[in-house]
Amino acid sequence: MNIYFSEIIRRLRKERGITQEALADYLGVSFQAVSKWERGESYPDIETLPEIASYFSVSVDDLLGVNLAEKEKEILGFIEQYDNLTDEKLKHEIIINAIEKYPNDFRLKVRQMEDLAFRNSGKDYEECLNKVRAIYSNIQNNCVNDSIRISAKRILASYYRILSDYENSGVTYADSEKIICEMPAMRNGREFLLSYLYPHETPEWKKFIMDALEEEISLLCHSLSHLFEVPDENNDADWLIYGMRAEIDMLNLFYEDGNYGRAWKNMIYSCGYLGYLYAKKGDYENGIKYLAKEAELAKRFDGLDRITVMHSRSFDGREFDKHTLGSNYSAVSRVKYLIEEKYPLPGEFRKLPGYKDLIDTLCSA
Questions:
Q1: Cβ proximity of 57 and 51 under 8 Å
Q2: Which of 265, 279, 338, 361 has the fewest Cβ atoms within 10 angstroms?
Q3: Taking Cα atoms as reference points, which of 320, 359, 316 lies closest to residue 337?
Q4: C-alpha distance from residue 19 to each of 66, 135, 212, 304, 318 (Å)
Q5: pTM score > 0.90 for this model?
């Protein structure tokens, strides 16, 4: 059995933000003893281990790193399941089980915070707001991983923005803006810095370039949607059509092989929304054309193997795991719901033979 005590006690002490002297005073030992523990030169008496474990709110097994590899594998399994699901109920069940088993892992805590904040569109704020704030405070005060700390800031800022629309939440946009202003600029992000600073003569650099490019495309799609205020049904249809066509053209530029990687959902839904806009405008021919394109893309996505290799000029050789968009995500089911129930298509449009053929195609998929 491997003993990881020196690494673990050093990490726990730093996460707690205390000095070797402060820990030594609490335990009634010299700070030189604590220093030797952290260097792996000696170990505390067996009677002291429960006291140290209690101080850091961990078990003695956790303190010694017993079965550390197995524990890490299980935690990563929980994280993969949670991140690759789209069903809120399943995500909630997974994170509850994970936190119950590993209550002190900050990677799980930040996902618990996300689950509490965004389930039921934030409407459970009377029950969840104080819990979200408590987890956030714990992460900011005790976690030394900047990535987790920043993720927690993003979640809280987004949560406050949602709650600012609820009359009795006691939260305003100013609460969200205060946190946003503490966040790093885009150019200080991980993907961009790795693509920019990683040694260019190494094979890993190409992967980091592709990571950055896909992240930038995803953000650009979001920005285009906000610029053209896609959800605003009062906007001029031609203005919205221009925005949707711009997004589709951009995606086809980068993914000319037809494998849209992380942007599959963006492409599918942009085609569908464009079809709806044409139908709303009275251009039924283009309405059918783009809704049919949405259905075609949904069927193609569902028919993909889980792992595919991309061959566009920008992403040649890059592997795409479609479970990153949701392990239980069905594009056909989602598109069928959008076309039949979500898009407010004109009644006359729904009577067209092309519309019926479209629904029959989705039902048979």
A1: no
A2: 361
A3: 359
A4: 25, 24, 38, 54, 46
A5: no
